[in-house]
Structure formats: C-alpha cells, structure tokens
Design a protein that fits this description.
single chain, mainly alpha, 6 helices, 55% helix
Amino acid sequence: MHNKSLIAAAAAATTMVMACNAQSDAEVRSGAELYANHCASCHGDVGEGDGPVAGVIRVNVPNLRTLSMRNNGEFPADDLRAFIDGRDIPAAHGDRYMPVWGDVFGWEEEDLDAADELADRRIDAIVDYVRELQYR
C-alpha cells in the first residue's frame, strides 16, 4: 500500500510540473497575454501610452505603436528588447521608470541559465507582439 501511495504522489507531482511547464510555455508563446498582464496598465491596451496607470507616472508613457515611425520606418527590435529586459542598461542613462522585466520574467526558475532563457523568450514574445501593434 505504501508503494502505491508513493507512486500516486509521484504521478501527481509529475502532472503538476507538466501543467506548470505547459502554462509557462503558453505564456511565452502569447506575447499578447504577457503584454496585457505586464505592459497594458501603463502603455494601454493597444500600446498608445494611455493605460490606467499612465496618468500617475512622473514621465510621459511612450506610444509603442509609433516605434517604427520614430525610427525611420524600421522597427527597433533590439533596442526594445534591451529596454524591456533592463538588466544591462547603464545607471548613467538616468532614472528608469519601467520595471526591469528581465529579472521579473525568469524569477520562478532557480537555475540562472534557465531563468535567463525563460526571460529572453518572454521578452521576445512581447517584442513580437509590439511589432504587430505598429501603425502601418
């Protein structure tokens, strides 16, 4: 009986881990969901800088839909990725009013390499989603 309980517990734990991994993978694949959960409160539902929190922030929240227009028609994916990540922005560049999402997006991974990889995949998903929001 003890072995059956142990096997059942192991099966339940494996199922929970698989469900958590599936949820993480789904979040990574959905830049729209990540954006809605982490970005829309400031940048607005469609990225125009008009989120419900924007009015109480000390700086103007940028319109993300005009990134390509403000960059001579080229979407600045690498610059956006680096700014969202935030871990490598030098302090000399002044105050940072946006969270350092590179730390946030990998927090549930104990292994640092896995945390970095997860954060990178989530940031890439958001960058791809913001690319879709650009004015045409």
